[in-house]
Amino acid sequence: MSNIGIDLGTTNSLVAVVMGGKARCLLDDEGRAILPSAVRYLDEGVLVGHAALHDAAAHAATTLTSVKRFMGRSMDEARAEADQLHYNLAETDDDRVVRVQVGDRSVTPIEVSAEILRALRERANECLLAEPGGAVITVPAYFDDAQRQATRDAGKLAGLNVLRLLNEPTAAAIAYGLQENSQGVYAVYDLGGGTFDISILQLEDGVFQVLSTAGDTHLGGDDFDRLLAAELLSRSGVTEARGGVLRAAIEAAEAAKKALTDADTAAVNATFGDAALSTTVTRADFEALIRPTVERTLVACKRAIADAELDVADIDGVVLVGGSTRVPLVRQVVEQAFGREPFGDIDPDQVVALGAAMQADILTGSSELAEDVLLMDIVPLSLGLETMGGVTEKLIWRCSPIPAAASETFTTHVDGQTAVDLHVVQGEREMAAHNRSLARFKLTGIPPMPAGLPRIKVEFLVDADGIMTVTATEEYTGTQAQVGVLPSYGLEEDEIERMLEESIDNAEADVDERMLIEARVEAEQILRAVRKALAGDAALLAEGEGERLQAVADALEAAMAGADRHRIAELSRKLDEVTAPFAQRRIERDLQLALQGQDALEVAEKLSRPTPAS
Ligand code: ADP
Ligand code: MG
């Protein structure tokens, strides 16, 4: 069974496989490697790729393109771009996931991507005469957890066994065999259809690490098409074009643009509505139109290099990726900016898919390719810590690329507490008990301090081998404790899947349980503070006030034994409210003390720090 590599692009997608020790892209029935990332929804079923784009102008509202932009995004983020879309966002009350309206139903970007992935899986099945074993799918280096998770889910929905997500620039670097150099710093310049990404990679001991990324999510070959389309429309005397006419102009422009990559002139014969155009565009005309756009990419390049704390001179090589880097002006501008000829002999449309296939092949374990390539992996399930009330506080989210590091500061919640128990868990559930327990350890030797004063910094580090170390440090005293764990060890794919399914099935109940526990924890804190104040400052109480406060406190305590979180929350609020005058008197008294030279204000500020501390 062969493993496949998939480049799931914004504009175009490809699938590749290693055969006879060499990576190659798999072709469709007409010999094309590229599958446009377009899905057209019919009354029943879908058309994917070239078939979806055929006559797209007439079916703009049901032909979905560029949905990768919305993977893992919320409706609000999508609405901000709505006016640039030729399809409609759906009306929905759930703003967490983007939904696009197609006819009388709505679909999510994950479902649309799954259609594209399914078409590639079918292509692989036909070419290989067997279902692919597993798949490596590439994602932009800047994709966050939600976007990576969405990509993984799309793969699963398409029936793929997703072995790994791989960063696109890393895939391109692998395709060029750069890992064989054992070390170096590389810039990967990726100009696609609608997006520009620049990534600075550092190779060390065969491991690629992303030092920085920058780019522009609205800059790419589509801009070249629009600029040239505007020129063509103006040559044909059309002053305002929309819908079908605009699409026709863009199609003519794209064809001319591609022709100009190899030729000095391109003939355009097209009709835009009632206007007919027959003209010639020279490469110089085209370059004059797009030069400012091409030069805009250099701004991001500078930023990425600066973010990596490097200089252009530190870059050992530049890799060209993306169909738009075929444009001669782009190559020229990049060469000038980096002061060196970029790597560009591998087809820039295919280079990411080829690298993904090589990585997929290495994962079969019987690869003829270099076996010693250690590559960025991801954390399969979130890693976190059990905090007060048994709630999980996630530090490293699922699908984060490794190596990964995160830290969070906690504090104690009991006066004079000298030790804290730390419980490291892995999983997506709200309650720690429902997640997988990885390790328990204790931080001892904290000097007795009032609750809330110690600052306990917990650091999670997952190294390139997937080995995790957790360190807890009490910051005032430097007291430290450490434990090592293997987070993904023994986590089989089906176990991961089961845990994810459970977390989705139980999401609502989990949230309720968490909120109940949080309500109790909050009530507990208020109660403790009130009791302490009543005991310590009884002298500040007015006639009968103590009894009144005590009655509310008792009611809250009784409610805490039950499971009605609304009642607990309401009584907590009430207790807060009725104790306000008393609290005010205490603050005034503390102020008096402070004026007498004691730093009560500072103490008060520290005492009010919540658990976990921020
Ligand atoms: P993405 O990664 O965003 O899916 P691609 O890397 O496939 O995109 O790049 C698609 C872009 O490349 C499109 O704008 C397309 O017009 C452009 N392109 C493809 N071939 C050529 C060519 N020969 N000359 C100029 N541009 C090209
Ligand atoms: Mg791409």
How do you describe this structure in short?
This protein has 614 residues and is an alpha+beta fold.
Q: What does this protein structure show overall?
A:
This protein is an alpha+beta fold and 614 residues long. It contains 16 helices and 26 strands. The longest helix has 30 residues, at 507-536. The site of adenosine-5'-diphosphate (ADP) has 21 residues, from helix 6 and helix 7.
**Largest sheet, strands/sense/barrel:** 6 strands, mixed
The number of helical runs is 16
Shape: elongated
Question: Strand tally, please?
Answer: 26
Which blocks of ≥5 consecutive residues have pLDDT under 50? 371-376, 598-614
Associated small molecules = adenosine-5'-diphosphate, magnesium ion
Strand content: 15-25%
Q: From the alpha-carbon coordinates, what is the Rg to the nearest angstrom? A: 30 Å
Estimate the helix proportion, in percent.
Answer: 25-40%
Could you tell me how far the N terminus lies from the C terminus, measured between alpha carbons in angstroms? Answer: 50 Å
Structural class: alpha+beta
Mean pLDDT: 87
